[in-house]
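Issue: ligand-bound run for NAP - logging full I/O for the record.

Environment: standard queue, default settings, no custom constraints.

Inputs:
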Amino acid sequence: MRIGIVGLGLIGGSLGIDWVAAGHQVWGVSRKLETCQQAGALIHGSSTDLESLAAHDVEVVVICTPIESIIPTLKYLAGSLSPQVIVTDVGSVKAPIMAAAQEIWPSFIGGHPMGGTESSGIAAAQAHLFRGRPYAFTPSANTDPQALQRLQALARDVEAEPLVCAADVHDQAVAWISHLPVMISAALIRACMSAEDPEVLGLAQYLASSGFRDTSRVGGGNPDLGTAMAQYNKTALLQTLARYRRHLQHLTHLVETDNWGSLHTLLAQTQTQRPCFVQPDIALNPEAAALCNTPVPIDEES
Ligand code: NAP
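Outputs:
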């Protein structure tokens, strides 16, 4: 397949590497000439000119720019691409993009490959970034089922597992597992940095090990992306932050009141529940799946 990628950074570059390895023809467009030159070693060719994609007669265009540039890019592309081209994106938020994109390119199919690192830019692009990871697609009522199938096949070519969901459900889900963790992780780093005694702060930084590395990782990621996630998924993020605050208050209360028994029970529960989020094969175990599918009622939290 002839594929055009706009935005040659971590995600665009990584998709390009895997699609070239899978035998596709991949042409890229990015803002900076230097980025295009670097990407030249990874894909078949790249340019700063969006109209070059039409000249290469691409069948699929994947917009991998920062979130705020996705719709402006689509508007520009709409003037040069032939209508049968399949256009998708990789933005971390889907509902606002779907709403705007359908006005411009009615058959637009939203996409979100669930892989990443804390790095950004073409230098961070790597093979197999999406291996074993879900790749969400958010089609619209105007989506051609065959176009969706072609994108799902492209997702499998990067070793990802395609799934289809509604854009608003996607945004609520990623608020919980992606956007909320960025805020919590940032708050953790900020809280630690506010330790007032310089000796304590210095020793804490020296002693920080794997636990702190795990819990602070996403707070140390790309600030442009973190800000865009919050801006474009504000409602869902605020809902998760409010719920998180209640849980933090409850934990504070247990510690203040020396309620070690309840704290232990809670930590035993979270120890059991964590695999629901981090072990993709959990659904194969019916007992565990039942646990994972049962939301904890708010009354039991405090
Ligand atoms: P990134 O590494 O910063 O890459 C984006 C690239 O787009 C930049 O390197 C930049 O290249 C280029 N660019 C910026 N504005 C452009 C424009 N107007 N036209 C053409 N190219 C432009 O960011 P990323 O992490 O790959 O994220 C890209 C998209 O993937 C975002 O929409 C994000 O929501 C989504 N996403 C990110 C992750 C993640 O964990 N990072 C995961 C899944 C999805 P130049 O050097 O040419 O300026």
